[in-house]
Amino acid sequence: MDNKDQVIQGVKCVVNTCHYHHPGDLCSAGTIEISPRNATSTEETDCSTFKPTDSMK
Ligand code: SF4
User: Fold this and answer.
1) How far does residue 39's CA lie from ligand 1's centre (Å)?
2) What percentage of the chain reaches a pLDDT higher than 70?
3) In this structure, how many other beta carbons lie within 10 angstroms of the beta carbon of residue 36?
4) Residue 18 CA: which ligand 1 atom is closest?
5) Mean pLDDT of 34-48
6) Is the Cβ atom of 27 under 6 angstroms away from ligand 1?
7) How close is the Cα of 50 to the center of ligand 1, in Å?
8) Structure confidence by residue, pLDDT tens digits, 15-34
9) How far apart are CA 11 and CA 44, in angstroms?
10) Would you say residue 56 has pLDDT above 60?
11) For residue 11, pLDDT beyond 80
12) Cα separation of 39 and 50, whole Å?
């Protein structure tokens, strides 16, 4: 984890293929953005902050 990265309290994320995923189903991105606007179902929403584990910063 980079120094600026920070585990977000209250966010559980199971996406273990994300660069920001942290053991214990936590997110270490510091802040996250969820989209899209006007979503009508749970399935339609996504974390826009997601970044594949093997991508470079
Ligand atoms: S950035 Fe999004 S997908 Fe990645 S660990 Fe955090 S909440 Fe999950």
Assistant:
1) 18
2) 88
3) 10
4) 4
5) 98
6) yes
7) 5
8) 999 999 999 999 999 999 99
9) 18
10) no
11) yes
12) 18
